[in-house]
Design a protein that fits this description.
four-stranded mixed beta sheet; alpha+beta; single chain; 4 strands; 63 residues; 25% helix
Length: 63
């Protein structure tokens, strides 16, 4: 059975890196690029859930 988790990601530019936040899982990561920040966040949310997020994030917000 495949479950879909409607997790969102918020990306924010800091001084020399990007911070990615998934409020539904209370997970925060960072990366040198937007893509790296999202990939790191996805990995940590998957660890939190104990399974893959095949659909990725349902919504990504940049600010």
């Amino acid at each position: 059975m495949t479950m879909w988790f409607p997790f969102s990601a918020t990306i924010r530019k800091e001084e020399s890196y990007y911070v990615s936040i998934c409020p539904e899982a209370d997970v925060i990561c960072k990366g040198e690029t937007v893509e790296e920040a999202i990939a790191n966040l996805k990995k940590e949310v998957e660890k939190f859930l104990g399974e893959e997020l095949p659909q990725g994030f349902s919504k990504i917000v940049y600010y």
